[in-house]
Design goal:
The protein is an alpha/beta fold. It contains 12 helices and 11 strands. The strands form 2 sheets. The chain has an 8-stranded parallel beta barrel with strand order 1-2-3-4-5-6-8-9, surrounded by 7 helices. Strands 7-11-10 form a 3-stranded antiparallel beta sheet, with no helix packed on it. α3 runs parallel beside α11. The radius of gyration is 19 Å and the shape is globular.
């Protein structure tokens, strides 16, 4: 067992990714741990109070786990670009009778200070960050509280930045990952590189333990990442259809629907690059969406909620990595067993 996982009671080097917006339920995190792995609660889009409730639920199960936060790294959008995109989306909003905030962009930091205080006052075993790298002082506070701190990165330059902040380990995310890219520079195109090659490049840049993620669909992918030097892998998309997942019914159905045959990286839903199943919305709006997070996330939120409630898979964000066809039904434990069958 890798030194990174020593002491956590982890038998399988497979971690359940934090999937914000609903999929990463306390039940999923608990199931991953009981199957010999480890799971992360997704702190993104939750209040500190709601996150505290989920932490309490998992702690009551007596299993190791982690918490992920969105670190501050805003990608502001100009009012003019924001309003232009809002006007373009108005026809979509009219279909569902929802109101879009077209007057100006709403910017926030996802309750950063309150969540950081929660995790320093009430430490959890692991804390990870994405979107931005926290200040070295914040990293030190968490480590002194007893947490192992991980940073999600997408390349060697970001890995060096994370190492300078004092993190304990890296989550190295390849561009095949589903959902939001962890890139620190969301205005730049994502570099196309295979996960094993990316792991090797990061390991040559910094001497930190690595967790590999992005496009992992089967045991062959797991073996390749571990052979490249990762101490563990992290998976998300392959768990979206499991019994314990909180993904919406339309999302789960779309992952198995032959009508959805590919994924695309798009800013259309949130203003940050994110990989999703290609659908009518991504086809129509990807080329027009400006960089602008979290402003576009807030702008399209009412529309996405209405489309999900209506089961309209052509208009909703169907986050998915390139290995989405491997997302099977059944318990999380069975999925982790399949992923580690080649070890």
């Amino acid at each position: 067992m890798s030194t990174l996982l020593t002491g956590l009671g982890v038998d399988r080097p497979v971690l359940a990714a934090p999937m914000a917006g609903g999929p990463s339920t306390p039940a999923l995190v608990t199931a991953a741990a009981r199957a010999g792995g480890l799971g992360f609660l997704a702190g993104g889009y939750k209040s500190a109070q709601a996150l505290a409730g989920q932490i309490h639920t998992v702690e009551a199960e007596g299993v190791p786990f982690g918490v992920n936060l969105f670190a501050r790294n805003p990608a502001p959008v100009s009012p003019e670009a924001y309003r232009a995109y809002a006007r373009l989306l108005q026809a979509e909003a009219d279909r569902y009778g929802v109101t879009l905030s077209g007057t100006g962009p709403l910017e926030d930091d996802d309750g950063w200070a309150d969540k950081l205080t929660l995790l320093t006052d009430h430490p959890v075993p692991w804390v990870s960050f994405t979107f931005g790298v926290p200040d070295a002082g914040d990293v030190t506070r968490l480590r002194r509280a007893g947490s192992t701190v991980l940073q999600c990165v997408t390349g060697p330059e970001e890995a060096r930045h994370a190492a300078e902040a004092g993190v304990d380990a890296l989550i190295v995310q390849a561009p095949d990952a589903g959902g939001h890219s962890a890139t620190l520079t969301p205005a730049r195109p994502l570099a196309q590189i295979a996960l094993p090659d990316l792991v090797g490049a990061v390991r040559r840049a910094v001497a930190l333990p690595v967790v590999a993620t992005g496009g992992i669909a089967n045991s062959t992918d797991v073996v390749a990442a571990l052979r490249a030097g990762a101490q563990a892998v992290m998976v998300g998309t392959v768990l979206l259809r499991t019994d314990e997942s909180g993904a919406s019914a339309p999302h789960k159905a779309a992952l198995a629907d032959p009508a959805f045959d590919s994924t695309v990286v798009t800013r259309a839903f949130t203003g940050r690059p994110a990989r999703a199943l290609r659908n009518r919305f991504t086809d129509r709006y990807s080329a027009h969406a400006p960089v602008g997070y979290p402003a576009l996330h807030h702008l399209t939120g009412p529309l996405r909620r209405a489309a999900t409630a209506a089961g309209d898979t052509g208009s909703v964000h169907l986050w998915a990595g390139t290995g989405f066809r491997a997302a099977g039904t059944g318990p999380v434990a069975a999925a982790l067993e399949r992923l580690t069958s080649g070890l």
